[in-house]
Design goal:
The complex is a heterodimer of chains A (about 375) and B (about 280).
Chain A: H1 11-16, E1 32-36, E2 38-39, E3 42-43, H2 45-61, E4 65-71, H3 77-86, E5 91-96, H4 105-119, E6 123-127, H5 130-143, E7 147-151, E8 153-156, E9 162-167, E10 174-179, E11 185-189, E12 206-209, E13 222-228, E14 242-246, H6 256-265, E15 269-272, H7 274-278, E16 299-303, H8 309-315, E17 320-325, E18 338-341, H9 344-365
Parallel strand pairs in A: 1-4, 1-6, 4-5, 5-12, 6-11, 7-11, 14-15, 14-16, 16-17, 17-18
Antiparallel strand pairs in A: 2-3, 8-9, 9-10
Helix pairs in contact in A: 4-5, 6-9
Chain B: E1 2-6, E2 9-11, E3 17-18, E4 25-26, E5 32-34, H1 36-52, E6 55-61, H2 67-76, E7 80-84, H3 94-112, E8 117-120, H4 132-140, E9 143-155, E10 160-166, E11 170-177, E12 180-184, H5 196-204, E13 208-210, E14 230-236, E15 246-248, H6 254-268, H7 270-278
Parallel strand pairs in B: 1-6, 1-8, 6-7, 7-13, 8-12, 9-12
Antiparallel strand pairs in B: 2-5, 3-4, 9-10, 10-11
Helix pairs in contact in B: 2-5, 3-4, 6-7
The chains are: A alpha/beta (about 375), B alpha/beta (about 280).
The structure holds flavin-adenine dinucleotide.
Chain lengths: ~375, ~280
């Protein structure tokens, strides 16, 4: 079964050459949409990243880029339209309704489905956040169209089709997925995978309001309360300038502290590969990679991490990747900038001490 | 209570290998497991049954050998296992999968009655899409409660439920109506060890197998590859960076290696060194 968008042997081959005409009723589907995730009075950064990516796709297709913004007025919705324009949208579909004040699947699915049927986008991008994943699956099912999760690269091919690339199971391969005969072509992308575009202040666009027919009485799910996270925990990891991470090469839970100490000396943050989370050595919010955090630091130091594709796609945005691994053939050396074949458990404390000394000396001198 | 739990048999990720020439996944000989995320739903279902009585039915779509994971689930204490299997389902993407599973659930509900809760895994470890649960909820008109960390209250009689849901910036406390599709967050519970009698019963249990026709699927164009709007066009290895990593020789002892590595880092990123030196509150 290929329930997972995992290519099975032969599946890719047998369909690769297949090319069908897009059915007539989908040919009017034009434009690129980005679902704007708006919660607690602010836009989620992933939506702005997707506006940047959507802008490129729209320009390539010669169509418009729209942000789709749902919410309830009193929470600063109008300011958010301005941000959409600054980050690249030509227009914003604005749906302002009290029932939409907090995200709930049912009314959001209804409104998104109605908008798609009315305004007919050819591509729709959503952040692969908790909210985006909850919504995307429902909308795609209602529309009976294709949805590709956790894409790491988007492109338009010769036939105007969205080529959505994501890692496949198995650790070393990527696959490119198309939605050939259905519209819109939907994809989710994790935060930080796409670069944050530079906003153009004062850039303008059109607001297209839409008034949905929604009654609170007909919505079965109610939000009783919301307990916000304290911002202190690992939330900074995705935005840290320096990240040190460990993998199974650390060999034991105690050795996680070697990673934390180096990160502390460098004033950075720390994380690890997925097996460490699965072993319970580190929290899930410390996982780096496709199904964890995507990071874009100036310096990334990976100790005892093999460099599987799911890890790689989460760190490739780093300016400099340094790998420490005992295996000279570890895949991580294929995309690291600097490498050392060494035992991380021995080298990390020495590196920490050497950095500390060096920075101390320079600070005293400077 | 009547509870359904959808599970998937997946290859044990620790043991997956990719064929070096054809770039396909070599599934042969790879041990399979129940998708670990599904077990949180199964355990929650068993706890609800402990509290309220009733039955827990596990369902899966897959090749005939997927009945082994159903048997495993019976060993944890589930009451009945249902396998939907047919060559027409091969190559299903998430849309086609949620279609088939929705038909399977409806067929099971004809026999057993409509479940109050359908548990699905938050996502699978092989595809990781998190789309099948919402797809089933949408198709069957179930309240959709994803990323649930705890069920605070449930009243099967009144059909009401209150849950904690892991949202992006905090925890939502939601109240909703049954029937609901719930995906449990990892770590929300721990799968029990089945009792001796569960394990014995599982070994002998008959797993019901249905094909597409048996669950009332007449339009095969909604199944498998044909029913999947997404198409895998290309599978490929990522390009290596044009240059490989510069290797720092690890000779002359660890301290020398550390110093050489730091030199190399700062030689490439002089600005980084300045940032670090000027950073406040250093050591
Ligand atoms: C759907 C899916 C999603 C996934 N998502 C993620 C994700 O988000 N993030 C992620 O990281 N992984 C993810 N994975 C897992 C990924 O495929 C790899 O299994 C994982 O990244 C491997 O972690 P590792 O490198 O720490 O361990 P291993 O692969 O076991 O590698 C350990 C490395 O340490 C080296 N080593 C051993 N001893 C030492 C030593 N003393 N000093 C230095 N080096 C040493 C070894 O040579 C080896 O290269 C995902 C997998 C799947 C299927």
């Amino acid at each position: 079964m290929n329930t997972s968008q995992t290519p099975v042997a032969g599946a890719s081959g047998s369909r690769a050459g297949m090319k069908k005409e897009l059915p007539e009723h989908f040919r009017s589907y034009k434009h690129v949409w980005v679902f704007i995730e708006f919660e607690l009075g602010r836009i989620h950064p992933v939506s702005l990243e997707l506006l940047g990516e959507g802008r490129k796709l729209a320009d390539q297709l010669g169509v418009e880029l729209a942000g789709v913004l749902l919410g309830s007025g009193e929470h600063g919705l109008n300011d958010a339209t301005g941000s959409c324009f600054a980050y690249g949208a030509d227009l914003v579909y604005l749906v302002d309704h009290p029932v939409l004040a907090q995200y709930r699947n049912q009314p959001y699915t209804k409104v998104m489905t109605e908008l798609v049927l009315k305004y007919q986008p050819e591509i729709m991008l959503l952040g692969a956040t908790v909210l985006g994943r909850d919504l995307a699956g429902s909308v795609a099912t209602t529309l009976k169209t294709g949805l590709t999760a956790d894409c790491t690269e988007l492109a338009i091919d010769d036939e105007r089709s969205l080529a959505a690339t994501r890692p496949t199971f198995g650790g070393s391969l990527l696959c490119t997925i198309h939605t050939l005969n259905y519209r819109p072509q939907m994809a989710t992308i994790r935060p930080r995978v796409m670069a944050m575009p530079k906003p153009v202040e004062g850039r303008e666009g059109r607001v297209v309001p839409y008034t949905p027919d929604l009654q609170e009485d007909s919505i079965v799910t109610k939000v009783l309360s919301f307990l916000p996270d304290d911002a202190s925990e690992a939330s900074g990891l995705a935005f840290a300038d320096i990240v040190v991470a460990g993998g199974m090469g650390l060999r034991s839970e105690e050795n996680i502290q070697l990673v934390r100490k180096l990160a502390a000396v460098l004033g950075g943050d720390w994380g690890g590969s997925r097996p460490l989370v699965q072993k319970g050595w580190i929290g899930a919010d410390r996982q780096i990679g496709q199904t964890g955090k995507t990071i874009r630091p100036k310096l990334y130091i990976a100790a005892g991490i093999s460099g599987a594709i799911q890890h790689r796609v989460g760190v490739e945005g780093a300016d400099m990747i340094v790998a420490i691994n005992t295996d000279p053939n570890a895949p991580i050396f294929d995309f690291a900038h600097l490498g050392v074949v060494a035992d991380a458990v021995t080298l990390l404390p020495l590196l920490t001490e050497a950095f500390r000394q060096r920075l101390l000396v320079n600070r005293l001198a400077g | 209570m009547r509870i359904f739990v959808c599970i998937k048999q997946v290859p044990d990720s620790a043991q997956i290998r990719v064929h070096p020439v054809t770039n396909t996944i070599m599934r042969q000989g790879v041990p399979t497991i129940i998708n670990p995320y599904d077990l949180f739903g199964l355990e929650e279902a068993l706890r609800l049954r402990d509290r309220f009585g009733g039955t827990v039915t596990v369902l899966t779509m897959g090749p005939p050998m997927a009945s082994e994971s159903l048997r495993k689930a019976l060993g944890y204490g589930a009451d009945r296992g249902l396998l939907l299997t047919d060559r027409f389902f091969a190559g299903s993407d998430t849309l086609a999968t949620s279609y088939a599973l929705a038909r399977l659930i409806e067929k099971a509900a004809e026999e057993e009655g409509m479940p109050q809760i359908v548990f699905c895994g938050k996502q699978t470890i092989d595809g990781d899409t998190a789309q099948v649960g919402p797809g089933i909820a949408q198709r069957l008109g179930l309240s959709q409660l994803t990323y649930v960390s705890a069920i605070d209250e449930i009243d099967p009689e009144k059909g009401s439920i209150t849950v904690r849901r892991r949202a992006d910036h905090g925890v939502q406390v939601l109240t909703s109506r049954l029937p609901a599709m719930i995906t449990m967050l990892e770590g929300s519970n721990h799968i029990r060890r089945g009792t001796q009698s569960d394990v014995l019963r599982a070994a002998q249990a008959k797993i019901t197998q249905w094909n597409a026709a048996a669950v009332g699927i007449t339009d095969l164009s909604l199944c498998g590859l044909r029913g999947s709007p997404t198409v895998v066009k290309r599978v490929f290895a990522p390009a290596a960076r044009s240059e490989k990593a510069d290797m720092i020789p690890a000779t002359g002892g660890g301290s020398a290696t550390a110093a050489a590595l730091i030199d190399a880092i700062f030689a490439r990123q002089p600005a980084l060194e300045e940032d670090l030196i000027s950073a406040a509150g250093g050591y």
